[in-house]
Hints:
Belongs to the ABC transporter superfamily. By secondary structure, this protein is of the alpha/beta class. It has helices at residues 45-52, 78-83, 100-110, 116-129, 145-157, 175-190, 202-207, and strands at 5-16, 19-30, 34-38, 62-65, 68-69, 85-89, 163-167, 194-198, 211-216, 219-221.
Amino acid sequence: MAGHSVINLQNVDVYQQKHLVLANVNLNIEKGEFVFLIGQTGSGKSSLLKIIYGDLHIGNGNGKVADFDLKNLADKEVPYLRRKLGIVFQDFQLLSDRTIEKNLEFVLKATGWNDENLINERIKDVLDKVGLRSKIKKMPHEISGGEQQRIVIARALLNNPEIILADEPTGNLDPETSEEIVLLLKQISQSGTAVLMATHDYHIIRTFPSRIIKCEGGRMHEDAQIS
Ligand SMILES: Nc1ncnc2c1ncn2[C@@H]1O[C@H](COP(=O)(O)OP(=O)(O)OP(=O)(O)O)[C@@H](O)[C@H]1O
């Protein structure tokens, strides 16, 4: 059965300015796949994610993400590409001066939603998906770190993305809460959204056996094993 590719990179060279970080990357991720991205600090994981969300241009090679052609991606198209992506990064936290509801409303309004009823419904939908509807009126500081991360995931789901990119989403969490977050991301992938998750947490990788790709020695390797 032919799959439905949501990320397809062919012979892509990943540069940070003049420095070649990863050479000749070939990567295909299908709808609903769950993939771990591993590699030492500085090996190129974030750079690879940047290629995928249109923050770095591809020089050599070809790339398609959620039907956007990365090679010919105009700057003005980047926000539309990002709407197809849910981004869960550590440095992309909740706005601390407003409630969970207002955090989510802010993103919807910034991405073109203006019908109040649809906005309210969508906010409830995504909060249900992460099991936190009861926290809708709370401020970020009134909920735990794990709950905040679930809200960040809810926020990433607002525009029904084809792909979630998660960079160390469990970095600041205790082991039990980390497992809950990854379980949630797994469930999201099973409902059809591909998840690409960069992590250094081998306990998590062992607990949730999945496809692993690794950045090492200036290359991206498939079917990586952890020891
Ligand atoms: N903005 C930048 N300008 C120039 N070089 C950069 C820039 N960002 C990263 N690099 C370099 O590119 C290489 C890959 O960095 P990258 O951040 O992709 O690694 P990483 O695997 O994500 O590391 P970490 O696990 O620490 O996040 C490193 O040598 C880094 O110094």
